[in-house]
Amino acid sequence: MLPMIATLEELQQVRQILDAEKAAMGRADDVKLGIMVEIPSAALLSNLLAEKAEFFSVGTNDLTQYTLAMDRGNPNLAKQVDAPHPAVLVVIANQASTSRTEAIGTECSIPPTDDGQRLLSDID
């Protein structure tokens, strides 16, 4: 699983490297390649990334921080970053819609709030 993938080109480059290393080792087995959806561009481009990724894992901590442009390490902001924000839920819902359309497995964890749990139930 790859972290911080922002573009399809990055994913394609990693796939090429992985395939070349498999060939160099004489391996023919299938290696599943997935990405962490933890930056807004990955969630918004998930339909393109689904062309090369076999699965997604939504990293809600980073995704929330980057979507809201807030430092989750700042004690004055931490409370706002910990709760599911409507903008973050929309970004995750967009990604979840792609997962359903493209039939790609997706893992996601959200703090246990009504909005967060409703979103998770919609993903399944």
Write the layout of secondary structure elements.
Elements: H1 8-24, E1 34-37, H2 40-44, H3 46-49, E2 55-58, H4 60-68, H5 78-82, H6 86-102, E3 105-108, H7 114-123
Parallel strand pairs: 1-2, 2-3
Helix pairs in contact: 6-7
Shape: elongated
CATH architecture label? Alpha-Beta Barrel
- What structural class results from the helix and strand content? mainly alpha
Largest sheet report: 3 strands, parallel
In short:
By secondary structure, this protein is mainly α.
Structure description:
The protein contains 7 helices and 3 strands; from the N terminus they run αβααβαααβα. The protein is mainly alpha-helical and 124 residues long. The protein has a single domain, classed as TIM Barrel, CATH 3.20.20. A 3-stranded parallel beta sheet has the order 1-2-3.
Give structural attributes.
single chain, 124 residues, mainly alpha, three-stranded parallel β-sheet
